[in-house]
Amino acid sequence: MFVNPWPGYAKQREFGVERAVHDWVFLIDTDEVVSEELAQDILDRKPGLTDRAVAFSLYRIGDFLGRWLDKGEYLVRLYNRKEYGIRNSLVHEMPEVSEEKTVKLNGILWHQGFRSINDHVARFNKYTDLEAQTAYASGKPFKISHLLLRPPARFLQKYFLHGLFKKGISGFAVSVFWVMYEFMVGFKHYELNSSGRLARHNAMGQAEKEKKGREAMPYSDGLNIMTTGLSWPSLQPGGLNTYFKSVCEQLSSRNKVHALICSQETPSTPKELIIHNAGDPKQSIWKRKDAFQRKAADLMGNGSGRIDILYSHFAPYGIGPAIEAKKRGIPVVMTFHGPWNEEMKIEGQGIKHRVKTTIAKSIEHKAYKLADKFIVLSEYFRDMLHSLHGVPLHKIIVIPGAANVERFVPAANRLATRRTLNLPEGATTVLTVRRLMNRMGLLQLLEAWKQVSERFPNAILLIGGKGPLRGELEGKISDYGLANKVRLLGYIPDHELASYYQAADMFVVPSQALEGFGLITVEALSSGLPVMATPVGGNKEILQGFRPELLFKGSTSDDMAEGMIHMLGNRKLLPGRDECRNHVLEKYTWQHVGDQVESVFLETLGKGVAAGC
Length: 613
What we know:
Elements: H1 9-18, E1 24-26, E2 32-34, H2 36-45, E3 55-64, E4 67-68, E5 73-80, E6 102-111, H3 117-137, H4 144-161, H5 168-195, H6 207-216, E7 224-228, H7 239-251, E8 256-262, E9 273-279, H8 285-300, E10 309-312, H9 315-327, E11 332-336, H10 340-346, H11 351-368, E12 373-376, H12 379-389, E13 396-398, H13 414-420, E14 428-433, H14 442-455, E15 459-464, H15 470-479, E16 486-490, H16 494-503, E17 506-509, H17 519-526, E18 531-533, H18 538-544, H19 557-569, H20 577-587, H21 590-610
Parallel strand pairs: 3-6, 7-8, 7-10, 8-9, 10-11, 11-12, 12-13, 14-15, 14-17, 15-16, 17-18
Antiparallel strand pairs: 1-5, 2-6, 3-4, 3-5
Helix pairs in contact: 3-5, 4-5, 7-21, 8-9, 9-11, 10-11, 13-16, 14-15, 14-19, 17-20
């Protein structure tokens, strides 16, 4: 695999072609699939590829709103790189081959290019920018007749001549998009022609030209995003920090991200992800809150476009930056990771603690009033945000979390992994990884394990994590006589976590309350490890759509004991490694999350523009 900073479509094609091993090159994009007939035709022709002057075109058909569009186009994709080069253009970058030199291949190249309406509009805007720039740069004059006649002519061509009227609403929508495409290309060409300032729009230029171009087309080259979080998982382990790091890294692959965290240390990150140490963990919560606001104000400047959108993840640290964003007309999107004050209530008591939870709720409420949109990781948290803080449902978008599918993979040699971790080779190993707190259900799990160990004396329970409940857990393990049946692993270093997933036979999530998503659930499944969980919060949503029988009947110790005993006694009922992993690959990857979050940003920004913000 070769990685190259984005230089433009044509130059990126050339970069790949130059690194091909052979002279005959077949061009295919990541959202394209070769039909069996096309693949066979290519293979049949392969031995006879002797004439370098011949190139091959293939028929590409796209999709829209879940329907394939019958009318496609022929594109040259198989050619000899010694004979032809890539056309140096901003858009439609293909080999420069005349039509008489091309031979049409049999079969179809399926183009799965449609992701969502928001994504379609964003790419549509980018391509019309590029096509208008190409027309202007080539010296073509703007003609009012083109602007008036080409859009309706394109509709007639697509809807009637190409038969899109047969495709129902999808065909009509595609035809309308083509009308808009022709109109926008023409009108953008007019804008460029009348202004005479090509440098502001030419995406082929140097860095200064690109910077000026972003002033006229602020989102075509990615967004400038400010994110506020708690910390970084390498500095402060936890689900919120893991999510924050992962989504920031994913967004930075196509945008510039400024991440504000509370830390005196700066973790290493990709180039486009810049960490700002906005607060000191040793300071009071009020000083940290003010520090985040000052840092945000400094980065936002006078609001002239340095930051496009604020993306907040922790209410106490997000409220100050949100205030600064509102002063400058910058939209605010918040991810609700759970009710901070409700979590505090569960873990403490007394008057002093009650005062703290009241203050926490007040901070949350004020922060949430500043948000334009909310992202939640589950329907459970959507309903909670709506009921606790009165946020209208239309402002809340559910985007489930994800697992790092490159890191969390099934073991190549499971026995070797178990030996490395010093686990008994013949024992049935059940794993859980939790912060040691009341709402995590570990006390109920230990009580359930008494019954499990009686039925399966060769089974061992591993509990990873640290927290205030450790002393009580140690006492219960001793009282229940489980010293040889349960291991408290303490905090599992990040680099070892994947190995524990790989080594275990089953994972269990015994949550009692406020389980917003279940990051560890999808990490375990991605590793090929079956998961059983209480029907609480996000875990219910993950497993209900996968294997409902993996959910305990309830959250009591008896419910957990019954479920584990049943599954461990009927191991064939557990899903296999591939089934577990495929469920995650289909629904819970960070690419999925990043695409959906970007769509929310673009929608929010679009509404802000329409409202004159």
